Amino acid sequence: MRQICMDCKILFGQKEPLHDNSETHGLCPECFNLRMKQIQEYKENGIDPWKKVEPKI
Ligand SMILES: [Zn+2]
Fold first, then answer.
1. How far is the CA of 57 from the centre of ligand 1 (A)?
2. Ion ligand 1 — residues with CB < 5 Å
3. Contact of 13 with 35, CB cutoff 8 Å
4. What is the DSSP letter of 36?
5. Prior bond to 17 cis, omega within 30?
6. Dist. CA 2–CA 37, nearest whole Å
7. Which of 21, 25, 30, 55 lies 20 to 30 A from 5 at CA?
């Protein structure tokens, strides 16, 4: 299975079963670190990195 990053859409890895060519979604190490950093910053100084996204009701 091909592992596609849900954020930047790159192919970042392969997953068993390798003969299966379908896609599975996750986060590449880069985006994973970025998310972790955002969460860390939010915990430390309360700046919500997701706040600029207006919720659609
Ligand atoms: Zn990514």
1. 28
2. 5, 7-8, 28, 31
3. no
4. H
5. yes
6. 26
7. 55
